[in-house]
Amino acid sequence: MPNPHALDPRLAASFLVAAATLACAHPATTVRASEAERTQYRLMPSPTTVAWGYYDAAAAPVLRVRSGDVVTVGTLITSTPARLEGAGVAPADVEQSLRDITATVTNKGPGGHILTGPIWVEGADSGDVLEVRIRKIDLAIPYAYNAFGAKSGFLPEDFGYSRMRIIPLDAKRMVARFAPGIEVPLRPFFGSIGVAPPAAMGRVNSAPPGIHAGNLDDKSFVAGTTLYIPIHAKGALLEIGDGHAGQGNGEVDITALETSLVGTFQLVVRKDMHLTWPRGETPTHWITMGADTSLVQATKIAVRQAIDLLMTDHGLSHDDAYMLTSVACDVEITELVDGNVGVHVLIPKALFVR
Length: 354
Description:
Distance between the termini: 58 Å
Order of helices and strands: HEEEEEHHEEEEEEEEEEEEEEHHEE
CATH class of the largest domain: Mainly Beta
Helix content: 10-25%
CATH superfamily of the largest domain: Acetamidase/Formamidase-like domains
Shape: globular
Largest sheet: 9 strands, mixed
Structural class: alpha+beta
Number of domains: 2
Strand content: 25-35%
Number of strands: 21
CATH topology of the largest domain: Jelly Rolls
Oligomer: single chain
């Protein structure tokens, strides 16, 4: 009987790539590089290319790119070799980069995510917006896990213990084999895509989402979508991680289908945009969002951001924007478990017929 956790040979090759491709700095010439000027980079996780558990304006960049450049970024499952093996992953199927990072990285923040970066984007500065175009997302390993703890998740009073389940991923059929007779469709996305917070905030925990984006855990941001993040520090200092093969809105037990992913992103500095909160765009919707320790306050932020978008981008009055949000837009819970809870508003593009 085949080992359900055996690494697909086609995927194994990706782990033999050098730990990181660190680029030389390029002088900033224009905010948007032309097609001919765009450079492609590859940045894989290693002890020298990750930030463990934090976003920080003082962090040293591991890669420098120009606006318009394309970066392929590898990310690691949010766990440790010991936990994965204890849950049933064969030692040979634990990524060597995860072993190296776990064994050698001591500069850790208060959070648990191993984030690849920071990436410095030339020309980016406080007050600008970083447009992160998510071009492609691939599974890096053939398994995920889901877990909850005695003091985490949305219902700790009902689950006063810990449990972790390893879930095989079928990359060909794009489903997770959750249990006999139960398959979960895969829609891989990165739970955490964020920039440095304002310098005055210091090193912030990687878990709570905020104005720097970070751990949004918004399943909307699959390949083909775009995230717009307000920049708070020179260079933006983008970090990416917390790969999810799939997730339900709310992420109620505190984890999704946690896995390692490889994503390809185009990074564009937008000096013509000025945002106070991150926003998103899919082929069919605009997305506004809010995060706060209070679900009510997070919802108010997201709704006010939707009203602002409708007024600024579509010329609606304050009253009409509020009304349109009520009659045609969906207010949904993003996640309930990361310290700051998240809410997002989906604004259908189809509303605008001309």
